[in-house]
């Protein structure tokens, strides 16, 4: 048959040519969207000053600063309880592909920590032991009578207290978070709890009725807060992130955040995060 009325020869050839062009354009658009998808930055500190009720706080400010320095590759902040993060890290099928801020190899367990990369320290701080009445020294807690009750956070590792729990010298009563443990402390259900000093100070500022609680420093070296980095992260992105963190001490924006939140530079006398990771891999 001849060609239809009003049709031109090139109209029959256009469709086969247009299909691969449209396909390639769609594929390019999909690839661009995939590349632009942000990497999740997990934060497990769910209370001030790390996370405020309106979503602001140290976690938000850190991720914003990292995104400004990263350029095209971005992070998306997600807040999760520590226990849920550990489930992500240990998932047998879905490999963890992101970062987790404000951690230290000791916080996730030495064997688990050895499976990930770690940034240089962001800052140092300390934990405190919190009591309803007169504080008891850690030495007295460790050597004292059995039956004392410690309020922990589900999923957290406690270098000082976990061995005592295993030996039956201390009872561990886990809660969902630090605020829950404070309420248990008020009710007399536990004898003491442990939390980050920054969080405790923010609690007392936010709830003056908690002024009667007493706190003493945990008898250990200060915690050097680092960023856990998945080995699934692309090498260029991981390297850029590590370089940015190593340059933060000289960054005026980070210096301003340090001052705003009352943070302390990592102590030079402490083991670096890389040294801590080497210890983890030897253990």
Describe the structure.
By secondary structure, the protein is α/β, with parallel strands linked by helices. Helices cover 43% and strands 18% of the residues. The chain is built from twelve helices and eleven strands. Helix 2 runs antiparallel to helix 11. The longest helix is centred in the first third of the chain and has 28 residues, at 9-36. The termini are far apart.
Comma- or semicolon-separated keywords:
12 helices; 283 residues; 11 strands; alpha/beta; 6-stranded mixed sheet; 5-stranded mixed sheet; 43% helix; disordered C terminus
Measured distance between first and last alpha carbons = 82 Å
Structural class, please? Answer: alpha/beta
> Which residue ranges are poorly predicted, with pLDDT under 50 across at least 5 consecutive positions?
28-34, 268-283
* Biggest pleated sheet: 6 strands, mixed
The helix fraction, in percent, is 40-55%
How many whole angstroms does the radius of gyration measure? 25 Å
DSSP summary, beta strand count = 11
Number of helices: 12
Query: What string gives the helices and strands in order?
Result: HEHEHEHHEEEHEHEHEHEEHHH
């Amino acid at each position: 048959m001849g060609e239809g009325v009003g049709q031109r020869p090139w109209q029959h050839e256009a469709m086969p040519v247009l299909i691969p062009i449209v396909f390639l354009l769609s594929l390019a658009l999909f690839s661009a969207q995939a590349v632009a998808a942000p990497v999740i930055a997990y934060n497990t500190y769910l209370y001030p000053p790390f996370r405020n009720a309106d979503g602001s706080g140290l976690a938000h400010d850190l991720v914003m600063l990292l995104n400004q320095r990263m350029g095209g590759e971005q992070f998306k902040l997600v807040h999760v309880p520590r226990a849920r993060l550990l489930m992500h890290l240990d998932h047998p099928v879905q490999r963890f592909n992101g970062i987790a801020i404000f951690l230290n190899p000791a916080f996730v367990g030495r064997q688990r920590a050895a499976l990930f990369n770690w940034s240089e320290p962001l800052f140092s701080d300390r934990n405190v032991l919190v009591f309803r009445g007169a504080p008891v020294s850690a030495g007295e807690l460790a050597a004292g009578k059995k039956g004392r009750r410690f309020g922990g956070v589900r999923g957290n590792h406690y270098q000082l207290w976990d061995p005592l729990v295993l030996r039956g010298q201390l009872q561990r009563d886990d809660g969902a978070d630090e605020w829950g443990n404070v309420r248990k402390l008020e009710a007399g259900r536990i004898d003491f709890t442990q939390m980050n000093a920054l969080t405790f100070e923010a609690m007392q500022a936010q709830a003056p009725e908690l002024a009667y609680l007493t706190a003493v420093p945990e008898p250990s070296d200060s915690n050097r807060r680092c960023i856990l980095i998945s080995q699934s992260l692309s090498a260029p992105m991981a390297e850029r992130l590590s370089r940015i963190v190593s340059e933060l001490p000289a960054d005026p924006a980070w210096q301003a955040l340090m001052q705003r939140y009352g943070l302390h530079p990592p102590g030079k006398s402490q083991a670096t995060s890389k040294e801590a990771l080497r210890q983890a891999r030897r253990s």
